[in-house]
Structure formats: C-alpha cells, structure tokens
Design brief:
The chain is of the alpha/beta class and about 425 residues long. The protein folds into 2 domains: about 1-20 and about 235-420, Enolpyruvate transferase domain (UDP-n-acetylglucosamine1-carboxyvinyl-transferase, Chain); about 20-220 and about 225-235, Alpha-beta prism (UDP-n-acetylglucosamine1-carboxyvinyl-transferase, Chain), CATH 3.65.10.10. The protein is about 30% helix and about 25% strand. It has 12 helices and 23 strands. The chain has a 4-stranded mixed beta sheet with strand order 2-15-17-16, covered by helices on one side. It has a 4-stranded mixed beta sheet with strand order 4-5-3-14, with helices on one face. The chain has a 4-stranded mixed beta sheet with strand order 6-7-9-8. Strand 20 (about 355) and strand 21 form a beta hairpin. The longest helix has 14 residues, at about 240-250.
C-alpha cells in the first residue's frame, strides 16, 4: 500500500486517540494471571496486541471479545500449557519480552520465536535475569537472541536486570513476579532506557491489586500475591496522538486529541513539552489536549531516553525547524522493529534534509530546504507515521509499505482521510 501526501497549511483537526498499546499489553497479562474473569474496556485492537492475546491463548488463557471489550478468564497464576508449546511473536518485541517471563510459569517447556527481524533483537539481559532466579532458558540459535526454549521455575529472590536495550526486560519480570515462589527484588543498574514504561507497568499492576514497592527506577520489590480480576478501561495512547500534534506543529494550525489522560504516566507526553519548547502552545480540557502552532519552529535539545516512541516524530518536526536540534539517549533505537536511527537519517536525507549521527549515538538535525520524494516504511509502523508528518509539511511525498501501521494504529490513514489530510 502506497500513500501520497500533499502540503497542508493552517490545519484544524479534532481526533480521538486510540487505546494505549503499552497499557493493553500489560492489562492482558495481569488479567490472564488474575483470579477470576476481568473485563478490559476499549483495548487496542492491533497486530501487536493480538499477538500478545494469541500467545496467552496458547498458554491456556481464554480471551473472548464482546464488541469493544475483552473478557479474560484468569488463571490465578497457574498456567495450563501443553507439551512443547510454541509461541510465534512475529515482529512484536513487546509481546516477546513480556511473555518470556510469563512462559516460565508453565509446567512444560515453551518455545518463543518470531520473525527474522525478531531474531536480531537482543534479549540477553532478560534471559540472564530469569536464569538467575530459577529459569533454565536456552538460546536455540544465536547466543543472546531469539528463539528461546523456556523451562525452569520462577523462584524469586534478588536479581539485577540489565536494561540498556529495553526497560521491557524489567517490566516482563515485574509482571510475572507476583506468581513467583518468594519475593522478587529487582535492581536496575545505571544506563537503563525507556524507564517511563516501568511507571505504566507498576500502574497496571497496582490497578489489578498488586502494589510494587520501589525506590525510584533503581530498585523494585514485589511480594507473592494474586492479581484481582476487575473491569479495567484502557486509556488513550500518547504515542499515537503524537503524530497529530506534530502535524499541527509543522503545518501550522490546531490539533485537538481526545481520549487522553492529561496526568498520565506515559512517557510520550514529553512530546508536548518538546513542541512547546519549539514554539507551540499546549492546553488541556477534560480528556482533550490541544496544540496550536503558527508553523514557525525553533530547534531544541532533548534527552529522549525515557520516550523512545516519539523520537522519530520529533526528529521529523526538527527537520522543519529554523534552527538546529540535537537528541540524545536514543542509541537503543537501533534494536527496534528496524534500526530507527538509520531510518531517521534516511528519511530526512531523502527529502533534502541535513541529519547526522554522532559517535555517542545522538542525532543532530540542521535546517535545510526540503523537497518531495519516496519514503520506504521498511515494515516499521513508526517510520511510516512519522514520515507522514513531513509529508504534510512538505508535500509530494509518497510512503510505500504504509500498511505496516496496523502494528499499533490500524486506523491511522483512515483518520487522516476523514480530517482531510490524506
């Protein structure tokens, strides 16, 4: 699927944010391990979350869809797995990582595998941590990478989780920790990334009745406990909303996004602060957040280590600014669905922009005249949606392989068409 975008100016759009992908993944797991049946209201229906749901199904969890709700019949932390269960995680790194710890609760060995790209994404930090507290997880191909053969037990105890590649290693362990035989005391060494997602994990766990004791982002402690079944509403996604805010920033005009929690712990709220620093105006009323811009933007310098999913979006905005920008703390983006650092450079340079990667992994973007062109999404949903930002700012830009947005935001192009931008 190819999408061609033309230049837009002085836009005025009002859209509704889709449900949060991060919250949906975690709520599915908490509900699956809970006592009783939970109702998840307004979960995200996308490729990644469907992979997590299907994986839980292979682990013996019953999940029924009723309109815009999911009924999850919890296991009480005791999974019913058949011999040599195999979970195919496709391109969903979140599903793979979060379900690795859950699979350790199965009485039988479980194989976790995925796409060719998944086999290039490191999981050594998570495997080492789990093997330190009872796991006997083995690599079936390259050491440190999927696929995995998971067996052993989740005994609990003290464990250090190296998280310089992804905070999902720690989130995975935390979500399964209440089902361990003894308390899990988790330590995260310096250099960890995407730490705001640990706030999302702790928020979901608390909502399902399991409090997380913590000292900042360095130490976490979870006691053996049972998740409690409940009705749980999934909040809107700031990652998905970021594209509409960015469009208003570069095109000028206004974007209002509904279904957002203004005080959410989602780290991708940081995009609004960054855009305000670049010259935009942000306001909130109820569940709606509005960004206004005159289209004249200044560069900014930000540490984005806690907000990886807005890096590409903010880089596209920076390419349209009148002064230089520099973004640090983003070197781990090379391990995402694609090498997103390379993708940022390729997209901006293909359109005549000036973007460079520094030795420390930071990206510097300088002002340069932009022109139309063809952008290959590279099977990465965030590359496709962030490229749409520049597509509307510059015009004459075609995005190929645009259907990959189904991974997190299936209705993205339809919504752009409905508001007259595509």
């Amino acid at each position: 699927m190819d999408v061609t975008l033309e230049k837009a100016e002085a836009i005025d759009i009002r859209v509704r944010a889709p449900p949060s992908k991060s919250y949906t993944h975690r709520a599915l797991i908490a509900a699956a391990l809970a006592d009783g049946t939970s109702t998840l209201e307004h979960p995200l229906d996308a490729t990644d979350t469907a992979i997590t749901a299907a994986g839980l199904g292979k682990l013996g969890i019953r999940i029924d869809r009723e309109g815009d709700r999911l009924q999850v019949t919890g296991s009480g932390g005791v999974l019913d797995c058949s011999e040599r269960t195999e979970l195919r995680m496709g391109d969903s790194g979140t599903s793979f990582r979060l379900l690795t710890s859950v699979a350790l609760l199965c009485p039988c060995p479980v194989i976790l595998t995925g796409s060719a790209r998944m086999k290039e994404r490191p999981v050594g930090g998570l495997v080492a941590a789990l093997n330190g507290i009872g796991g006997r997880i083995r690599y079936l191909e390259a050491h440190g990478f999927p696929p995995l053969l998971i067996e052993g037990e989740l005994n609990g105890g003290k464990v250090c989780v190296e998280s310089s590649v992804s905070s999902q290693f720690a989130s995975s362990l935390l979500l399964a920790a209440p089902c361990a035989r003894s308390a899990v005391e988790l330590q995260i060494p310096p250099g960890a990334v995407s730490l705001s997602y640990l706030d999302v994990t702790a928020d979901v766990m608390a909502s399902f009745g399991v409090p997380v004791q913590r000292h900042g982002y360095e130490q976490f402690r979870v006691l053996p406990a049972h998740y409690r079944a409940r009705t749980y509403r999934i909040e809107g996604d700031y990652s998905s909303a970021s594209y509409f805010f960015a469009m208003a920033a570069v095109c000028g005009g206004r974007a209002t996004v509904e279904n957002l929690v203004p005080a959410s712990v989602q780290g991708d709220r940081a995009l609004l602060d960054a855009l305000a620093d670049m010259g935009c105006r942000v306001s909130a009323s109820g569940d709606a957040v509005t960004l206004e811009s005159d289209g004249r933007l200044e560069g900014t310098e930000r540490d984005l280590s806690a907000s990886p999913d807005i890096v590409q979006t903010l880089c596209m905005v920076a390419a349209h600014a009148r002064s230089s920008s520099r973004f640090t703390g983003i070197s781990h983006l090379q391990y995402k669905e694609s090498d997103r650092i390379r993708a940022i450079l390729e997209v901006i340079r293909a359109l005549g922009g000036d973007a460079a990667r520094e030795k420390d992994g930071s990206v510097v973007i300088r002002p340069a005249p932009l022109h139309g062109g063809v952008i290959a999404a590279g099977n990465d949903h965030r590359t496709a949606m962030s490229a749409a930002v520049l597509g509307l700012a510059v015009g004459g830009i075609t995005i190929t392989g645009a259907e990959c947005v189904s991974k997190s935001f299936p209705d993205f192009w339809e919504i752009l068409h409905e508001v007259g931008l595509a």
